[in-house]
Design goal:
Largest sheet: 6 strands, parallel
Helix content: 25-40%
Radius of gyration: 23 Å
Number of strands: 8
Strand content: 5-15%
Number of helices: 11
Order of helices and strands: HEHEHEHEHEHEEHEHHHH
Distance between the termini: 28 Å
Length: about 325
Amino acid sequence: LSQLNEGKIDILIGTHAIIEDHVKFLNLGLVITDEQHRFGVRQRALLSEKGESPDVLVMTATPIPRTLTLILYGDLDISIIDEKPLGRKKIETYHIDSGKKERLFGFVKNQLNDGRQAYVVCPLVEQSEKLELKSAVDYYEVLKNEYFQNYKVDLLHGKMKNSDKDKIMEDFRNGLTKILISTTVVEVGVNVPNATIMIIENAERFGLAQLHQLRGRVGRGEYQSYCILISDSHGKVAKERLSFLTKSENGFEIADKDLELRGGGEILGLKQHGLAEFKIADIHNDIDIVKTSREAVNLFLNPVFADIKSNKQMLIEIDKRLNKMLEFIALN
């Protein structure tokens, strides 16, 4: 920390811990946020505030709706890498109900017998009395003792000791463990090319960005890979979201669908989803108008037009409203 404060460290790589108040930079010039959908609005703002207007680069396979909205508004410039690494195949994605599990487990056994491996992701670590959701601990016992007695099955979740987690992941990477039952701790930073099956229980409980990230844990090698979304939800939006995921692997298409279903959140504020506070416009359907408006604003701010009386009055009013909103954000 003292070396960082004195400018003796050129590049600092870390987790959310970098956001803490006691982490101080001498002259922060660039902030790079990977997996940006895992950072909240305030967290990203705090990172930027550690320097004098540093350049900011955010990266993700699936932009959250708010980020997509900011791009549309012109707050971010964007670069898209839309090609898969050489040799990667499309991940076949299916949405099934729990009644088809016997058939699914038979398919998993065929894959394991071919030398492949599988993930099973649950929304909870342990069973909850309030929520009827699959827990990783209970699911591990069921799969290990009832369905996959002849295969090495392991359990991974965030409450474990780091040394235990490291050992479990090492066994999975080395192919000793055939099925890894886990929570979302495997969502990012896990690379096991031999794993070809991702099963997600209670898939309706996860956001589209999260499901897309989890799916990205497979399909990292030369083998055909599969993502199975298990859900018994009859909700219209839940079914629409999961159905869409079976048809698209494009992060921006998925984020666009998420934007349509969840809303883009507040442009000036902390909410990352929900409808923007427009009286008429719809950020999703009126995208062409938004782009035209952005061009008009850039023209409006041009110094050539700055001295026009009506423009001056409008800028004063905008400044007043903006400051009120920023004060509100600072207090909350």
